Amino acid sequence: MIPAAFFVAACCLWEAIVRLAQVPLYILPPPSAILSEIVEQNLSLLKHTGVTMIEAIAGFAAANLIAFALAVVFAHSRILEKGLYPYAIALKTTPVVAIAPLLVLWLGTDMRSKMVTSALICFFPVLVNATRGLRAVNEEALDLFESLAATRWQVFRLLRLPNSLPYLFSALKISSSLSVIGAIVGEFVGANSGLGYLILVSSYHLETPALFAAVVAAAISGIAFFGVVSWVERKVLVWQEPSEV
């Protein structure tokens, strides 16, 4: 209720300031105009939101699978970690806006380039947290497994993997929101559907209420995706409280 109350208060203040200052609609529309646009264009918004979420979920899934597999390799081989980790950092520090045009050139303007853009943004947090979680095992527990002649697979399945889940879900919640951002950034470069496409078209025609409606749809999508991952975390990590992130 507290966030809802703050949201209503902010919208009322926004509405009052825009109307009293007589701010032009194309510069800053009042919340009532944005809500009206959402209601009028609900089917179009749902269509574009669906396209963006398909791209985001696909990129999210691909990035997490690859990142976790690489984290398992890093957890068992310091040499491979030292050899490959700098390239992962380089990929993280390279602005995705600079890579997105190349992806469109290589993969076309369909969903594939947006999925890859989304995956690139999601990749690094999962890699870092999963590697840390797989390594942060209790030394006494590890000694116990070794004294019982446990195989590497048994150590991984019964000790390292459960221990890494809190770290992993913290990264997944971060990546869930980033995946939506990555999909929209990919749509900025070249697309004919999706929320990023809708934002660009609205800005070109100075249709500011439609632009804000697309931004609201993107925010709600990110929050919903984050909520789903948090719900899964609570169901999986039944032995402890979920993390704050």
Rough outline: elongated
Q: What is the CATH superfamily label?
A: MetI-like
Helix and strand composition category:
mainly alpha
What is the name of the CATH topology? MetI-like fold
Indicate how many domains the architecture comprises: 1
User: Which segments are poorly predicted (pLDDT under 50) over 5 or more consecutive residues?
Assistant: none
The helix content, as a percent range, equals over 70%
CATH class category: Mainly Alpha
Number of strands: 0
Biggest sheet record: none
Q: Note the total helix count.
A: 10
Strand content range: under 5%
Distance between the termini: 20 Å
Spell the H/E element sequence.
HHHHHHHHHH
Overall pLDDT metric:
87
Radius of gyration: 22 Å
List keywords for this structure.
single chain, 245 residues, mainly alpha, MetI-like fold, 10 helices, 83% helix, elongated
Please give a structural write-up.
This protein has 245 residues and is mainly α. It has one domain (45-236): Orthogonal Bundle (MetI-like fold), CATH 1.10.3720. Helices cover 83% and strands 0% of the residues. It is built from 10 helices and no strands. It has helices at residues 2-21, 31-40, 42-76, 78-93, 96-107, 111-135, 139-147, 152-189, 195-204, 208-236. Helix 4 crosses helix 6, helix 6 (111-135) packs antiparallel against helix 8 and helix 8 (152-189) runs antiparallel to helix 10. The longest helix has 38 residues, at 152-189. It is elongated and about 75 Å long.
What would a concise description of this structure say?
This protein is mostly helical. It has ten helices and no strands.
